[in-house]
Task: inverse folding
């Protein structure tokens, strides 16, 4: 039973880590195109 619970927690943490990894990639791509990251969205050409 412990292995099943551990598997669920590990999958959950791996999913959350992937979400943060993707968000960081989006922020970097937004900055490279000259946009501004605001409230989870890339605002193009904002100054």
Result:
């Amino acid at each position: 039973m412990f292995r099943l619970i551990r598997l669920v927690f590990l999958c959950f943490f791996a999913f959350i880590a992937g979400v943060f990894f993707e968000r960081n990639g989006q922020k970097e791509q937004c900055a490279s195109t000259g946009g501004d990251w605001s409230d989870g969205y890339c605002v193009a050409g904002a100054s």
About this structure: Strands lie at 36-38, 41-43.
